[in-house]
Amino acid sequence: MNRIRAVSKLINGRLGLGDIDRFVQKDKAYERAKSIVPFFYYFILFVALLQLLQLRHLSEPLIFAPRWPIFWADYVSFQSAGTIILVFFSFATLAGAYFYRNHFGRFVAFLGLLQFHAFQGSFGGPNHQWDLWLWVALILIFLPDIWGKTKQSSREGKKFLIVFWGAQAFLLLTYSMSGIGKLLHAALQYFQGEAHLFMFNSAAFHVYSWLNAMQATSLLGQLIIEHPLLGWFPFMFILYVQVFAFLVAFRPSLHRVWALALVLFHMGTYFGMNAEFFYQVPLLFIFLFASPFHEPGTSWRKMISDLPLVSCLLRRLHSKHVTVT
Amino acid sequence: MSYGTAKKIIVFFLVTYFAIGMLARYFRQGPEDFYPFFSWFLFAEVPQITQEELDIHIREIKGE
Questions:
Q1: CA torsion sign, A296 to A302 to A304 to A308?
Q2: pLDDT per residue over A97-117, tens digit each?
Q3: Fewer CB atoms < 10 Å away: N or C end of chain B?
Q4: Contacts of B11 in chain A (CB under 8 A)
Q5: Confidence label for B56 from pLDDT (cuts 50, 70 and 90)
Q6: Which residues of chain A have a CB within 8 Å of the CB of B41?
Q7: How far is it, in rounded angstroms, from Cα A108 to Cα A94?
């Protein structure tokens, strides 16, 4: 039991889980979070309406293997399945946009998104463009229904903020997973004597290989292939941003900076490799750039001292200084 | 549901997503991840380019 307590204490201290309790108590943060949530539902409604344009040219694809959420599509024609899903998606998100203040509205929006997401991924290959939207919609179902109350208890406010923080942490976790994947493969490839992430031409190899496989061109692809260092430095920067993204969930001073870095990363992968993941961008803006936990007057000094690794280095330097003096 | 319970559920969800995403990557049966979980290992492996790769585009054969 003592060991479990010690591990939990270590996690709370090192990772900053204990800090969440501190920053979910602020009334201002609660008010801001409450005003941010509707934008999530407004945006998916907009997307759902755009998807209705597909109805004009729904034609039987070469492969259609329905994922489990749309198992029922096996029993109807492809056109009927597609029409039902897209129409339901639009009405479900309309319900979400209108009734986001209660569990039922948010649940229906999630259901619509789940059907659409499964449909998008049923054509023989995975489609991860909407993954984060789907999971965030699931998390938001658990927000307490306290919009209507003029004065909420601090306990309810805290509960609202911890669910909101869960959505932020989930977004950042996926980027960390991507960074960890790169580090794991870098180690494997290094020990196998193969080209690996830390070689100066790794970004150029990625660009060349991807553009070649997709038979595509990109704005900066040729430049990166000819001058590999131009791609490698941003690649290393983004590796840092990705690996430590999850830690940033516990450091509100960095929420906006990380949102900006990740948006630049998505723009960079498009300019360099023609690989687009633009649907993540609105999520980054809604949940991190507009983060309710970010204090408006946060100084640059505070942000720099909170940077992962830098904060560790500063802490060590400080403790050394204190020991010497 | 209390604040403490909500916090525990959130932490449990994050740990579960991470674990299933990672495990699905290495223990999946088919070519895809365990829907709707995903490892997010995008562009993780550096492609090995060890030789000159050439594309030949045939534009015309016997005037066609």
A1: negative
A2: 999 999 999 999 999 999 999
A3: C
A4: 17
A5: confident
A6: 177-178, 181-182, 185
A7: 9
Q: How far is B59 from chain A (nearest CA, A)?
A: 16
Question: With an 8 Å Cβ cutoff, are A121 and B35 in contact?
Answer: yes
For residue B33, the chain A residues in CB contact (below 8 A) are: 126
A125 contact partners, CB below 8 Å, separation of at least 6:
B32
- Judge whether A203 and A272 are in contact, CB under 8 Å: yes
Average pLDDT over residues A149-169: 85
Residue-range definition of the domain harbouring residue B39 = 1-64
Number of domains in chain B: 1
Task: Compute CA distances A17 → A4, A20, A33, A166, A284, whole Å.
Answer: 15, 6, 20, 12, 22
Sort out which chain B residues have CB atoms less than 8 A from A19's CB and list them.
Answer: none
pLDDT of residue A280: 93
Q: Is the pTM of this model over 0.95?
A: no
Nearest CA in chain B to A177: B40
Cβ within 8 Å of A, B 1-60:
1-3, 6-7, 9-11, 13-14, 17-18, 21-22, 25, 32-33, 35-36, 38-49, 53, 55
Tokens of A173: 């976790």
For residue A142, the model assigns a pLDDT of: 94
List C-alpha distances in Å: A190 to A14, A105, A197, A266, B40.
30, 50, 8, 27, 21
Amino acid at A1: M
